[in-house]
Task: inverse folding
């Protein structure tokens, strides 16, 4: 029984005759133009580990006869920690053929490409790891019609790009390239 071999680029030798569209080739889907950074993944992993311990505590309280109210409280708290870990992994910028989407922890904002007037990288005070402390750094901002203050899309001191300057530059260039490709040309 021959087993198919999967190469490093994800191509299987058993699928030589099948022409499938790759996920990154579909420009209609919302996709993140960069990988989540190590800080974001580490914080989410710690939160997932904490939620696992909280779920174990829920089981212990329920089976030890601690009452359903205590077990329910533990379960709700564990699910809240689990949901925040998953939401933390979702936070970031997505692009598609229709526009630009900035997903925050609590809010999501979508800007169509025809509303975007300018995307540029600027030097300004940026928040360090999303905390209130600010440091001097780079930020990718977008100017759009009807928006007074340009929202910050990416910063080089965020959980995705802290101490990864090349990754920030690549992500900013990719978002700018998407804008140049899909933004209508002014007449």
Result:
């Amino acid at each position: 029984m021959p087993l198919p071999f999967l190469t490093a680029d994800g191509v299987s030798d058993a699928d030589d005759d099948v022409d499938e569209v790759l996920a990154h080739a579909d420009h209609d889907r919302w996709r993140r133009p960069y990988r989540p950074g190590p800080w974001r993944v580490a914080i989410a992993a710690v939160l997932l580990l904490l939620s696992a311990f909280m779920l174990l505590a829920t089981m212990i309280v329920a089976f030890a006869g601690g009452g359903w109210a205590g077990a329910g409280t533990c379960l709700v708290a564990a699910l809240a920690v689990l949901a925040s870990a998953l939401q933390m992994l979702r936070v970031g910028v997505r692009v598609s053929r229709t526009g630009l989407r900035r997903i925050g922890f609590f809010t999501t904002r979508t800007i169509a490409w025809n509303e975007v007037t300018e995307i540029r990288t600027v030097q300004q005070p940026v928040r360090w790891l999303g905390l209130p402390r600010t440091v001097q750094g780079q930020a990718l901002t977008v100017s759009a019609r009807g928006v007074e203050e340009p929202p910050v899309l990416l910063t080089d001191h965020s959980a995705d790009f802290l101490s990864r300057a090349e990754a920030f530059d690549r992500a900013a260039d990719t978002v700018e390239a998407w804008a140049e490709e899909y933004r209508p040309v002014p007449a």
Remarks:
- The chain has a mean pLDDT of 86.
- The helical segments are 38-63, 68-90, 165-182.
- The longest strand covers residues 116-127.
- Residues 38-63 form the longest helix (26 residues).
